[in-house]
Amino acid sequence: MFQDKVRLSLLLLTLYSCRLSHGMWEKRYYENYHRPTYYNPHHKSGQHVDYNRQALEERDEVTTTVKTTTVFDFESDKSFYVHILHKASVIGAGALISRRLVITSARCFLGTKVNPTPLFQAKDMSVLSSIDFATPEKASAAIAFYLPQGRNNSNDVHDIALIALAAKLDKGDYNYIPLTRKVPKAKDEVKMVFRDSYTYDVTVYNTKVVDTERCQMLYEKTVHQNIAFDEEMFCVRNKKFSKKSVCSTRPGDPLIINNKLAAINIYGEHCEDFENDSMDVYISIKYTIKYLQRATDLLRAFTGTGPFNPSFTTRRTILLDANVTEQRALAF
């Protein structure tokens, strides 16, 4: 009997030795974390702190939100459409092309019969976005005003004008419209944006470009206005003046092509002067890009908000850049 027990023990030892020689040991370490527990009748169990390491790491983990910019859609977001105010009175429309720069028509700054020689200064100007039309106290103050010289050696202006704001508009509430260099041709489809005089809503009107020569002849015959129809100007068909519809376009109204600003209305509507055809004159953005860059450089220089455009390497720009740098060094 004793011998049988010895044999069985030897057999089990042999089998166990074989398992050790041919097998692999896997070590696992389990860490036990101390979880202090306290009892407070005023606290619920859900308010107790879980001292588990994984729970603490998840609690202290900082979540980073990635900001993505949505594609601009002028039909759903019309905050780019603005009113130009002079001493709290609306004198024209415009478009927001950056967070602190507005483009409009120079014809907004003409004299009236009551005041034929007005003085326009940036300190008296402000800009009101279309989303704030009901709250005029939200108008943004201007810091600079850019008005080009007259065309064709005359004092009459047929161009754009720029207004720089004193502070950048909030990125979350206001969107500016991108620019396009495309110049539409006759019969091309475009979109006019204006404020309807009946509903007071910013309206989009689908229309087409008309022949420039025909438009020029019609203006000279009907409106009797000396318009310099240069290569950067073209005409767009407006609504017909009737009892059911009325034109509401003003100087500074934008023209849209593929969700981008293509032109600015120079003179506004003349629907009452036309019997059959009603046309508005626009100036293309393509021919104002250099002027926009210079105005932006001046704004950055005099406000100290950014560098000059590196594409400008003319002698005048280099001297201006050096002068501003020297003035900043002397200021400090």
Automatic annotation (TrEMBL):
Q: Which InterPro entries match?
A: Peptidase_S1, Peptidase_S1_PA, Peptidase_S1_PA_chymotrypsin, Trypsin_dom
A Gene Ontology molecular function term for this protein is: serine-type endopeptidase activity
Domain Peptidase S1, by residue range, is 83-292
Membrane-spanning parts: none
**Pfam families per UniProt:** Trypsin
Please state the span of the N-terminal signal peptide per the UniProt entry. 1-23
User: Tell me, which GO biological process terms does this entry list?
Assistant: proteolysis
SUPFAM superfamilies according to UniProt: Trypsin-like serine proteases
The cross-references to PANTHER family, in alphabetical order and at most eight, read: AT20289P-RELATED, POLYSERASE-RELATED
What is the name of this protein? CG14061
